[in-house]
Input
Amino acid sequence: MWQRHIAQVPTSSNGRISPRAGHPPGQLKELHGNLFTLACVDAAGCGYVERDNFEESLTPALDPSKDEKATLGSIDPDNKPRASPLLLAGIARKHAQILGDSYQGSTPTTRDLAALKPPEQSASAPVASVPLSSDLTKDDLPQCPKCRSEILRPGVVWFGEPLPVDVVEETEAVFDDPGPIDLCLTIGTSSRVRPAAGYADMARKKGARVAVVNTSADDANNVRADRDWVFVGDAAVVLPELLRPVVGEAA
Output
């Protein structure tokens, strides 16, 4: 009998996308922190931390105008990328290999068969260009309510900063566990930044098969032809197809 058990999900995303989509927060290891945590810049002397602050503008000086908000754009729900026939056929073959006689295929719909859009016509919203005043002062920025002498910063890992030690230790503890790892999914990552880039190989050493989902096959490292899989495409399209036999139709 299958047991559904996900030990943990390390992520380099800092936009809290997974929790807002309903992912159990206890499984998520945010290696690069998240934008919705605020922390005093004086971490040692003050240490103030505020989590899950979703206010659109923290101070009046950082509030974009209504006209600028209109430039953010929106995603058309009827204009999302769809899987190509080649991709659907490949995923169906993998399902059949994994599930054997228990796999039941389904006929792709017309929308499923529509070709994927090229990158320049992606359904993502355009990047906002929100100019900020060049004469901002420290007083215009979010102030720490605890020490009242420093400003708040986003709780993300900036270039040159170390990853949070506690999160890394929690993430890597699973590799010290005596139990095996059955499957490792690497989704939407270049697999080049350590330590996360090494997690797939660490999982392989514990018996895991690795499935890579990415827009480029070049980002898949140390793939074993007889053990691992590489699915090239948009994760928003590929993952629902891969997981359909397990979780059913995506909402």
Q: What stands out?
A: The beta strands are 9-11, 28-30, 33-40, 49-50, 152-156, 183-187, 209-214, 229-232. The domain at 17-32+160-247 is CATH 3.40.50.1220 (Rossmann fold). The longest strand covers residues 33-40.
